[in-house]
Design a protein that fits this description.
eight-stranded mixed beta sheet, 2 domains, binds zinc ion, 269 residues, 24% strand, two-stranded antiparallel ribbon
Length: 269
Amino acid sequence: MPHIGTMIFTLSAIAMFLVSSALETDASMKRKRLLVVDYTQGFRHTEGIEAGEPVLQAMGEKSGAFSVDYCRTAEDVKEMLTPEHLKKYDGIIFLNTTGDLGIPDLNAFLKWIKEGHAFIGMHSATDTYRDPAHAAYIDMIGGEFRTHHNQCEVKPVHDDPQHPAVKPIPADFKITDEIYLFTKTDRKKLHVLLSTPQCPPDGSEEAGKPGDYLLAWCKMYGKGRVFYSAFGHRKDVWDNEVIQRHMLGGIEWALGQVKGDSAPSSSSD
Ligand SMILES: [Zn+2]
């Protein structure tokens, strides 16, 4: 017959073990897995990529929302961006990718997003697969990089102040970055999050011209969720806590962890 004290100790140790494993299971169920792709076939944003990688990783760890793996080389792209390998991920981040990345089957990759995975694009993710042969990629992300001029300061309009990617941004927030100008953006297809009603003061002939200059948006793609932010060229943009909260909100929305509207900004009458 074991000593009563030993029995109580053993039982409470078992109970503690069960509670802690239940907590672990719960946490791992909540934490999503993201693959960060930063391979480039065109211009390489060394500064933005080197700054973005650790910021995204720390963001995931600190929030407990996601963990990241990296896909950095042509070989990684061939091995990792296949429907088979992507089975272990909840979504993907294109961190300053450029050009034709060499995804083995681009249509299969897009189908994987459509089936209910997250696609998060940052800065030059819209300067990726711009060849008309790959129009399906631009259609998925919702806009195509047209050009940029000098880096400059913008004060974004909050198109959806309640969206988790916009809510953390103070109303008077300003930021200096390389501001992208787009083509193929359409408010009838996008839920615009941030924009500016004039071309940013980028030193070009277009500067100050009235128009609809988008800075961030989201959209549904089949059952998948797409979030795009044009920010992320400069290191100090990645280090900016407001931008980090903007990106985290967008990522959590794309992963389905937080709610936010994705209806097109203009009705298609
Ligand atoms: Zn750039």
